[in-house]
């Protein structure tokens, strides 16, 4: 709320929440027009017959000391984006700048010093852990690769890291297959934090963890941020976790960012219909409310394919507000309120960007009707 | 049949479900220990439960508490020489721990199927997703490859993979994390199993797809009367799906009962901690989550007495330090509701209503 008049004064941000820490910081990572298309090949000759447009032109920046949360449906390109900004994948187009330096096309050798500063926690812990190495070896690998000896020796430091993420010393000599799912996830976290990186891209860092250890890890990430000024990009589909850790949140849909906003604005007054749907669909942990499903906006229709995304606004095939212009014209990502960028012709909680275009598409009318039906039933609770 | 009855009679107490549904899976005193260089890891140490046809048992508990090891045990998948498995697993009247591995293998897929926590480890990297679903189907159905492939595409469609006809020929590494998880769900459901064990089936999925998957599991239950075990740390999912709930800590069951009762009147301090550390959207955000203090226990040297005692804020309430010397057994705390704690019923009721519940 405090940002209503902050349009031209970037320094101004209500000092009311601790989480604002990074909001004014300098830019650590900047991404422009980033794209990744994976070719689809068929037949003996492996001819290219199409492409998965996993990331299809996104722009954002991450400021020093802040946490940017990235949410979006499965398959919308979050992990691909993470791999692009850590330079584990080569972009099809666009640029990635880290600390003001263009790192888009650096060679492996030139990237090595940066590897220390930028770490990734992988979504699939099992496949990122070498099955033939013990956990001690895996977590100490970054020290060996970068030729660093921590105070007190490598083994001691590794054991400290393990205990910080809630693992026992008795785990030191064990192999990845001898761990539970959540323990493996924490091994990845310990490894990523070993060298005190500047930027950590965490792909679903707590999805396999129970709530209690989730809380422990989330608090740990918080503490490290405070102590060392770490910057995070946290990819998660769990909106309650993202709200908890993020300063700003980017919502992705089919390879695009559709909304990018300060945390509070996003949760209090989401502007993109897709964001609103995502927020409404979170199950509520209370069995008494099991029957009350009505407040949910369950998106109807198939998730479109990133091989042939819909024209105009990519969300128009499932949106209950879609009109003709949505089908023909792609809405640009515009700052409709300070700190809140949205790509939509008819945003929620904001002025209509295409008020002349009022006739709903047929699918939208159906979707809107279903929403209407379900909100009727919700009134009797 | 008679064997099952005998087992049910021989079982001393807490398990028989009073509303005597048609029990499909019955697990008795299951123990799974692993020999390691550092000592014997007691991953599962005397767990018992029942699941009836058409019902869902939710299993929750700390990471590393033995949930996956328990379910792999039911599936008969601990084959390494280092794994020591004992106890009884009765599936539709047939005991599986003592059964021949070939016999158990025959049951997998159709009679019981599992959605594994780690999709990549459950899928073969060198075969396409479609090929793997086709093979899973053809083990139990004598049909042509073409028909099986149609079925694979249909299943991928039902789990929400866009353009399944094009994606069926992709390799697992070409799928996103959530797509792999859904491919595995498709594989587990392709034969309409009578018992489905879903180990964190929706961890990688956003809420919309999650809802779709949960609906799919409900459909399976409705159509085929399948029994379901749902392992998850997402209490929202548990609240929505589970009829009964089992809370694990350190390889044992610390609380079990109807889901509503365990949510509204939990009677074990660990369960309280679990509920307290949950981020939720429907309530105001507190600045920090409150985790259960301390580290998870070593499963090689479990703390004596109650395994939760080093982390339990109430460990000094029971007299004579009994909490640190005697292991609490499950006792009845409500209708079909059991908890393992030395505190008296009154003490627990008081702490829950006065100290814990108001803060949640
Ligand atoms: N190596 C690859 N080859 C071909 N397609 C790929 C490859 N990696 C990713 N894709 C495709 O790109 C799209 C985006 O995948 P990505 O892993 O980025 O999704 P995500 O947002 O991380 O999803 P999830 O939440 O399920 O992990 C998907 O359609 C996926 O199948
Ligand atoms: N092959 C093995 N050898 C030794 N220890 C093992 C082995 N497999 C599992 N364990 C240990 O057994 C315990 C229980 O593991 P399990 O995978 O059942 O945990 P979980 O409850 O499923 O946890 P999560 O929620 O993290 O998946 C863990 O502490 C794990 O380290
Ligand atoms: S209103 Fe139009 S532009 Fe906005 S999300 Fe819906 S379809 Fe897209
Ligand atoms: S037995 Fe003692 S330590 Fe265990 S939960 Fe009860 S009070 Fe806490
Ligand atoms: Mg991903
Ligand atoms: Mg597990």
Automatic annotation (TrEMBL), chain A:
One function term, GO molecular function aspect: ATP binding
Keyword entries, A-Z: ATP-binding, Nucleotide-binding, Transport
Domain ABC transporter span(s) in chain numbering: 29-279
Matching SMART domains: AAA
InterPro entries named in the record: AAA+_ATPase (IPR003593), ABC_transp_ATP-bind (IPR050319), ABC_transporter-like_ATP-bd (IPR003439), ABC_transporter-like_CS (IPR017871), Oligopep_ABC_C (IPR013563), P-loop_NTPase (IPR027417)
SUPFAM superfamilies: P-loop containing nucleoside triphosphate hydrolases
Keyword Membrane: no
Similarity section: Belongs to the ABC transporter superfamily.
Official protein name in the record: Dipeptide ABC transporter ATP-binding protein
Record organism: Streptomyces composti
Species classification: Bacteria, Bacillati, Actinomycetota, Actinomycetes, Kitasatosporales
Automatic annotation (TrEMBL), chain B:
Alphabetical list of SMART domains matching this protein: AAA
Single GO molecular function: ATP binding
Membrane-topology descriptor: Peripheral membrane protein
Keyword Membrane: yes
Statement: the UniProt record of this protein carries the keyword Disulfide bond: no
Domain of life: Bacteria
Sorted UniProt keywords: ATP-binding, Cell membrane, Membrane, Nucleotide-binding, Transport
Primary localisation category: membrane
Sequence ranges assigned to domain ABC transporter in this UniProt record: 27-275
Localization of this protein: Cell membrane
Family named by the database record: Belongs to the ABC transporter superfamily.
Name by which UniProt lists this protein: ABC transporter ATP-binding protein
Record organism: Streptomyces composti
Phylogenetic classification of the source organism: Bacteria, Bacillati, Actinomycetota, Actinomycetes, Kitasatosporales
């Amino acid at each position: 709320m405090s940002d209503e008049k902050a349009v031209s004064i970037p320094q101004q941000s209500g000092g009311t929440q601790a989480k604002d820490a990074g909001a004014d910081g300098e830019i650590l990572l900047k991404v422009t027009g980033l794209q990744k298309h994976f070719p689809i090949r068929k037949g003996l000759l492996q001819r290219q017959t199409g492409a998965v447009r996993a990331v299809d032109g996104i722009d954002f920046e991450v400021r020093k000391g802040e946490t940017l949360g990235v949410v979006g449906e499965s398959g919308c390109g979050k992990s691909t984006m993470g791999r692009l900004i850590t330079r584990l994948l080569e972009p099809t187009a666009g640029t990635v700048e880290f600390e003001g330096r263009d790192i888009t096309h650096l060679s492996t050798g030139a990237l090595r010093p940066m590897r220390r500063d930028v770490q990734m926690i992988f979504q699939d812990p099992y496949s990122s852990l070498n099955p033939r190495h013990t956990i001690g070896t895996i977590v100490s690998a970054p020290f060996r690769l970068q030729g660093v000896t921590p105070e007190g020796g490598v083994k001691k430091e590794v054991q400290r890291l393990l205990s910080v993420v809630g693992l026992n010393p008795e785990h030191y000599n064990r192999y990845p297959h001898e761990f539970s799912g959540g323990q493996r996830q924490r091994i990845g976290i310990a490894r990523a934090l070993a060298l005190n990186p500047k930027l950590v891209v965490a792909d679903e860092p707590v999805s396999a963890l129970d709530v209690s250890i989730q809380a422990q890890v989330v608090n740990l990430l918080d503490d490290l941020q405070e102590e060392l000024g770490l910057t995070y990009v946290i990819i998660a589909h769990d909106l309650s976790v993202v709200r908890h850790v993020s300063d700003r949140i980017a919502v992705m849909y089919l390879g695009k960012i559709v909304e990018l906003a300060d945390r509070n604005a996003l949760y209090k007054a989401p502007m993109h219909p897709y964001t609103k749907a995502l927020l409404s669909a979170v199950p509520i942990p209370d069995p008494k409310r099991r029957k009350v499903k009505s407040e949910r906006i369950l998106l109807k229709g198939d998730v479109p394919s990133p091989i042939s995304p819909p024209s105009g606004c990519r969300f128009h095939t499932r949106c209950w507000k879609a009109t003709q212009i949505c089908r023909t014209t792609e809405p640009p990502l515009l700052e409709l309120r300070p700190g809140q960028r949205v790509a939509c012709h008819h945003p929620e909680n904001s002025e209509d960007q295409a008020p002349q275009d009022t006739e709903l598409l047929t699918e939208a009318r159906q979707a809107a009707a279903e929403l209407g039906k379900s909100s009727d039933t919700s009134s009797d609770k | 049949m008679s064997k099952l009855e005998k087992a049910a009679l021989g079982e001393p107490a807490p398990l028989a479900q009073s509303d005597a549904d048609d029990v499909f899976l019955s697990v008795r005193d299951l123990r799974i220990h692993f020999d390691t260089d550092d000592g014997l890891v007691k991953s599962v140490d005397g767990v018992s439960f029942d699941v009836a046809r058409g019902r869902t048992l939710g299993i929750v508990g700390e990471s590393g508490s033995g949930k996956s090891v328990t379910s792999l045990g039911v599936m008969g998948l601990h084959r390494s020489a280092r794994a020591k498995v004992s106890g009884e697993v009765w599936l539709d009247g047939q005991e599986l721990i003592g059964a021949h591995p070939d016999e158990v293998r025959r049951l997998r897929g159709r009679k019981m199927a599992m959605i594994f926590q780690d999709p990549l480890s459950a899928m073969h990297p060198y075969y396409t997703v479609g090929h793997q679903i086709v093979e899973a189907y053809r083990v139990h159905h004598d049909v042509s490859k073409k028909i099986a492939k149609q079925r694979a595409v249909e299943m991928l469609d039902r789990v929400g993979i866009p353009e399944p006809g094009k994606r069926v020929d992709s390799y697992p590494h070409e799928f996103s994390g959530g797509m792999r998880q859904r491919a595995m769900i498709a594989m587990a459901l392709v034969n309409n199993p009578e018992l489905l064990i879903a180990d964190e089936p929706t961890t990688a999925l956003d809420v919309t797809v999650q809802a779709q998957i949960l609906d799919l599991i409900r459909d399976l239950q409705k159509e085929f009367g399948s029994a379901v075990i749902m392992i998850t740390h997402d209490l929202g999912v548990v609240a929505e799906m589970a009829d009964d709930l089992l809370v694990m800590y350190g390889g044992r069951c610390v609380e079990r009962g109807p889901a509503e009762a365990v949510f509204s009147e939990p009677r074990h301090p660990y369960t309280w901690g679990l509920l307290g550390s949950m981020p939720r959207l429907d309530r105001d955000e507190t600045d920090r989550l409150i985790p259960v203090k301390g580290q998870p226990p070593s499963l090689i040297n479990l703390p004596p007495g109650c395994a939760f005692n080093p982390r339990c804020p109430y460990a000094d309430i029971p007299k004579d330090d009994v909490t640190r010397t005697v292991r609490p057994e499950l006792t009845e705390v409500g209708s079909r509701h059991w908890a393992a704690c030395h505190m008296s019923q009154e003490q627990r009721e008081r702490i829950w209503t006065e100290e814990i519940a108001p803060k949640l």
